[in-house]
Amino acid sequence: MTAFTLWTSRDSAGLIAVPVPDDDKYSRGVLGVVTGSTAYPGAAVLAVDAALHTGVGMVRYLGDERATTLVLQRRPEAVTVTGRVQAWLVGSGMDAVLRNTATADRLGAALESGLPIVVDAGALDLLDRATGPVIIAPHLRELSRVLGESTTDLLRDPAEAARRAAQTLGVTVLLKGHRTYVASPDGTRLVASSAPSWLATAGAGDALGGILGALVATHARAIATDPALLARLGATASVIHGLAASRASAGGPLTIVDLIEAVPAVIAELLA
C-alpha cells in the first residue's frame, strides 16, 4: 500500500474558517453550485444544504428548473442567479450522457472560470476544460472510468489508485470510500477514516461535495497561492462528513439530511 498520513480531527480544526465581526457574506466566501438534474434533483438539494451548514457566506445555485425549485424550497437563502463566486462545486447528480445544452454551458463557465473547483461524478469527463485549481471527488467506479482501468484492479489498492490518478490527471484526487484517500500531484497523501459503515447510502457523496465546496470557497484566496491546500481541505471535509455521520447514526441507520443537520455541532466540537 502507498504510504498515506492519517488526517485527524485536530488537523481538521485548523482548516475551518471562523468569521470575524467585520466579515460579510462575500468575504466569508461564495460557493457556486452546478449539481443535480431533472432526473436527480435531490443531489442539488443535499449539496446546497450541506454547504450552508458547513459555513459559507452564500451559495449561488445554477441548475434546471425542477432542481432550482426544490433547492429554494429547502433553502430559501440560496441565490439562483449568476454573479460573483469564489469557488465552484459541479457534477454530482448529473449524467454526462443526458447532459443538455444549458447544463453544458453552466459547467463550461464554471470549469473555465480559473477559480478553485470541486468536480464530481457527471462532470469528470470535462476535466480538460478546467483552468483553475481542481479537486475531484470520485468513488472507485467513477475513477475507473476516468482512468480507463477496471474497478477490480483499482480495488486491490485504492490508496495507490488515488496517488496514480493525481499524477496522471494533474489534479488533487479525493477517492471516496470507508477510508477516504486524498492525493495531490505535489506528493501530498492523506487518509481520513472517521465514517461509520452506515454511511454507505445514497446522497452521501452529494453531502460530502457540499461540505468540501464550502471549505474551498472559504479558503479560495489561500488556494490561489497554495494549490496544495486542496488536499488538506479534502481530508478535512471527509473528517467532518464522517463525524457528522457518526453523530447522526448513534450506532444505527442514518439519513443524509440527519448527517447534514449534525455538521454545525461537529464543527463546533472541532473548534473547541
Q: Summed up, what is this model?
A:
With 272 residues, this protein is α/β, with parallel strands linked by helices. It has helices at 9-13, 42-54, 65-74, 101-111, 140-147, 151-155, 158-169, 204-218, 220-225, 229-249, 256-271, and strands at residues 5-6, 30-34, 58-61, 87-90, 117-119, 134-136, 172-175, 180-183, 189-192. Helix content is 45%, strand content 12%.
Structural account:
With 272 residues, the protein is α/β, with parallel strands linked by helices. It has a single domain, classed as 3-Layer(aba) Sandwich (UDP-N-acetylmuramoyl-L-alanine:D-glutamate ligase). The chain is built from eleven helices and nine strands. It has a nine-stranded mixed sheet, with helices on both faces. Helix 2 packs parallel to helix 3 and helix 2 packs across helix 8. The longest helix is centred in the last third of the chain and has 21 residues. It starts with a strand and ends with a helix.
